[in-house]
């Protein structure tokens, strides 16, 4: 009877799959297990590599997600896809040692603990082989913040290597945020009943093959995850994100408008141009600047492998973005100019225009980076 499912989220890990299956096979001798690779349609063909193994070894399964990204949601979907009573999550780049799995399984099945996890910072653990003292430091800091915000007192709440009964996960799966939060921490901070957690010291290794997916967006994702756990139920994360970015964009917009009105307002008013000319010019420049600001922000916060780089890709992306925003921008400029004509103050007219454009952009925002956060 199936005892354990090991969930391995993958993105461009084709060279690590076969060796990982071999290590699992060795480590889990005598245990009825299956492994589920949850792959986000990796361009390097990871899913096909895993499927090829699965053809002769039915313990190896694949979930391939199209048009989706995210480690946390991949782990949740993998855990929910198995019939095994106990599920584990680990990285597929060999940084996590599968030799710990039998001990973790024994601790759970014997009732010693509800959740077993491998800690990089427990006594007896080591991070030397990782060879990244900078990342050790960063993880330490993130752990300290996470402990403060969530109240979860573990030596390594950010660990990505853990095991628990599938039923425990399923009971609360609908309440997990699934955004870039470390999934173990998400689970521990979400469940109502306190879970007994056992730590297993881990000798954290260096990545075997392939490239790290960790980049600066991870810091951003970490903050979003903390927000989601902390205030997300009161003000939904997606809304807060959109609001924050929108408010920044509005500030940029108003600043540009103000400068244009200030610099050219009087001259234009004295010229033979219609008196709204300065406002229209200001609004147009402000809208284009705010849109560009939003475009840059969007681009910086997408996954590294999707980020546009170089003049031509950026220019093409900007044009596409502008075309999508064009309707909102025209509505913004048209309506606010009409308001100025009937006597509204330019700044309040601009604010009405910004709100109009925001409604349009909110409807479209799914297409862009915020789609990642639900
Ligand atoms: N399905 C899926 N898996 C992912 C995604 N991002 C990362 N992974 C996998 O999650 C695991 C951890 O990602 P890594 O890039 O190794 O992150 P890390 O271990 O924090 O960073 P390194 O120390 O640099 O390796 C690996 O098995 C990745 O292939 C994703 O967007 N989707
Ligand atoms: Mg890794």
TrEMBL record:
<comment type="similarity">
    <text>Belongs to the glycosyltransferase 2 family.</text>
</comment>
<dbReference type="InterPro" id="IPR039528">
    <property type="entry name" value="DPM1-like"/>
</dbReference>
<protein>
    <submittedName>
        <fullName>Dolichol-phosphate mannosyltransferase</fullName>
        <ecNumber>2.4.1.83</ecNumber>
    </submittedName>
</protein>
<feature type="domain" description="GtrA/DPMS transmembrane">
    <location>
        <begin position="242"/>
        <end position="370"/>
    </location>
</feature>
<feature type="transmembrane region" description="Helical">
    <location>
        <begin position="239"/>
        <end position="265"/>
    </location>
</feature>
<feature type="domain" description="Glycosyltransferase 2-like">
    <location>
        <begin position="6"/>
        <end position="164"/>
    </location>
</feature>
<dbReference type="Pfam" id="PF00535">
    <property type="entry name" value="Glycos_transf_2"/>
</dbReference>
<keyword id="KW-0328">Glycosyltransferase</keyword>
<dbReference type="GO" id="GO:0004582">
    <property type="term" value="F:dolichyl-phosphate beta-D-mannosyltransferase activity"/>
</dbReference>
<feature type="transmembrane region" description="Helical">
    <location>
        <begin position="346"/>
        <end position="364"/>
    </location>
</feature>
<dbReference type="InterPro" id="IPR007267">
    <property type="entry name" value="GtrA_DPMS_TM"/>
</dbReference>
<keyword id="KW-1133">Transmembrane helix</keyword>
<dbReference type="Pfam" id="PF04138">
    <property type="entry name" value="GtrA_DPMS_TM"/>
</dbReference>
<dbReference type="InterPro" id="IPR029044">
    <property type="entry name" value="Nucleotide-diphossugar_trans"/>
</dbReference>
<keyword id="KW-0808">Transferase</keyword>
<feature type="transmembrane region" description="Helical">
    <location>
        <begin position="277"/>
        <end position="297"/>
    </location>
</feature>
<dbReference type="InterPro" id="IPR001173">
    <property type="entry name" value="Glyco_trans_2-like"/>
</dbReference>
<keyword id="KW-0812">Transmembrane</keyword>
<feature type="transmembrane region" description="Helical">
    <location>
        <begin position="318"/>
        <end position="340"/>
    </location>
</feature>
<keyword id="KW-0472">Membrane</keyword>
């Amino acid at each position: 009877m199936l005892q354990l499912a090991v969930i391995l989220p993958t993105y461009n890990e084709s060279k690590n799959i076969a060796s990982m299956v071999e290590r699992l096979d060795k480590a889990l001798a005598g245990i009825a297990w299956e492994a589920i690779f949850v792959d986000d349609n990796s361009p390097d063909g990871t899913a096909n590599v895993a499927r090829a193994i699965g053809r002769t070894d039915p313990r190896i399964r694949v979930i391939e997600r199209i048009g989706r990204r995210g480690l946390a949601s991949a782990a949740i979907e993998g855990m929910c896809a198995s019939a095994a009573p106990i599920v584990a999550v680990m990285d597929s780049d060999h940084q996590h040692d599968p030799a710990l799995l039998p001990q973790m399984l024994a601790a759970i099945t014997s009732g010693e603990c509800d959740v077993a996890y491998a800690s990089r910072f427990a006594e007896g653990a080591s991070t030397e082989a990782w060879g990244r003292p900078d990342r050790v430091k960063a993880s330490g800091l993130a752990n300290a913040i996470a402990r403060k915000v969530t109240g979860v007192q573990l030596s390594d709440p950010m660990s990505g290597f853990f095991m628990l009964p599938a039923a425990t996960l399923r009971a609360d799966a609908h309440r997990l945020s699934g955004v870039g939060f470390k999934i173990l921490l998400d689970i521990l901070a979400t469940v109502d009943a306190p879970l007994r957690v056992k730590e297993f010291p881990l000798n954290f290794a260096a990545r075997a093959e392939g490239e790290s997916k960790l980049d600066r967006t991870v810091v951003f994702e970490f903050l979003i995850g903390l927000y989601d756990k902390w205030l997300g139920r009161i003000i939904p994360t997606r809304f807060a994100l959109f609001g924050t970015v929108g408010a920044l964009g509005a500030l940029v917009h108003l600043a540009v408008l103000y400068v244009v009105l200030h610099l050219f307002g009087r001259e234009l008013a004295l010229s033979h141009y219609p008196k709204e000319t300065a406002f229209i010019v200001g609004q147009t420049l402000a809208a284009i600047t705010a849109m560009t600001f939003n475009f840059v922000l969007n681009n910086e916060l997408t996954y590294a492998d999707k980020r546009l780089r170089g003049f031509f890709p950026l220019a093409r992306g900007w044009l596409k973005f502008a075309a999508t925003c064009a309707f909102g921008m025209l509505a913004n400029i048209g309506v606010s100019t009409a308001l100025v004509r009937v006597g509204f103050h330019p700044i309040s007219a601009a604010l009405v225009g910004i709100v109009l454009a925001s409604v349009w952009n909110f409807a479209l925002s799914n297409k862009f980076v915020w789609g990642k956060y639900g």
